[in-house]
Amino acid sequence: MGINPLYYLTMTKKEIQRYFIITLGLVFIVFIVGLQSFTKHKNKKSGGVVMELYTTAFNHEEFIPKKYSCKGKDVNPELQWENVPEGTKSFALSIKDPDAPIGTFVHWLVYDIDKDVRKIKENSVPGKQVENNFGKEDYGGPCPPSGVHRYYFRLHALDVESLGNINSMDAFDKKVKEHTLARAELMGKFQK
């Protein structure tokens, strides 16, 4: 047995308001519970917390100091990370500019970074390097021709101790993708 549809036509204004408020409240509760469940699962990787990459040189999505660019000392900033997933056997790091006129411009590719490392010191080389778009292996800082560019620092936790010998940027991307357990990202901006 259900409610007679004509019942709704005979409801008073007060009853309609109360019915509407109760229905709206239930929808809101279901929404909040669903959102909490989604957020809880979204922020977790298998085994716990999401890996984080950061620097004391600048904040995420803020401007990179001139010191780390072609207008300064052109040295890499210090980078640190935490919440490394279980099973990590090495790390790989890339710094890329997706706003370059030629397409994505590669500034630095480093791999076979030891699994126990949690910090890359300023102006240092923590592992093996691959030639970048500057035609060199060493770090090349931001140097955009015009406008504001974004620079993505991406650290990958890998499931192998070594990626072997990598001779190209494409090979780096392919091998890193095949062996990534988790990835952390930091973005900084720069304008000449």
Quick synopsis:
The chain is of the alpha+beta class and 192 residues long. Helix content is 21%, strand content 29%. The protein contains 2 helices and 11 strands, in the order H-E-E-E-E-E-E-E-E-E-E-H-E.
Query: With helices defined by DSSP (H or I, 4 residues minimum), what is the helix count?
Result: 2
**CATH homology superfamily name of the largest domain:** PEBP-like
State the major sheet. Answer: 6 strands, mixed
What's the alpha carbon Rg, rounded to whole Å? Answer: 25 Å
Mean pLDDT: 88
CATH class of the largest domain: Alpha Beta
CATH architecture of the largest domain: Alpha-Beta Complex
Give the end-to-end Cα distance, rounded to a whole number of Å.
Answer: 74 Å
The CATH topology of the largest domain? Phosphatidylethanolamine-binding Protein
Task: Tell me what portion of residues adopts beta-strand conformation.
Answer: 25-35%
Low-pLDDT parts are: 39-47
Strand order of the largest sheet: 4-11-10-6-7-9
How many beta-strand segments?
A: 11
Q: What structural category arises from helix and sheet content?
A: alpha+beta
- Domains, number: 2
| Percentage of residues in helical conformation | 10-25%
- N-to-C series of helices and strands: HEEEEEEEEEEHE
Task: Jot down its keywords.
192 residues; 29% strand; Phosphatidylethanolamine-binding Protein; alpha+beta; three-stranded antiparallel beta sheet; six-stranded mixed beta sheet; 2 helices
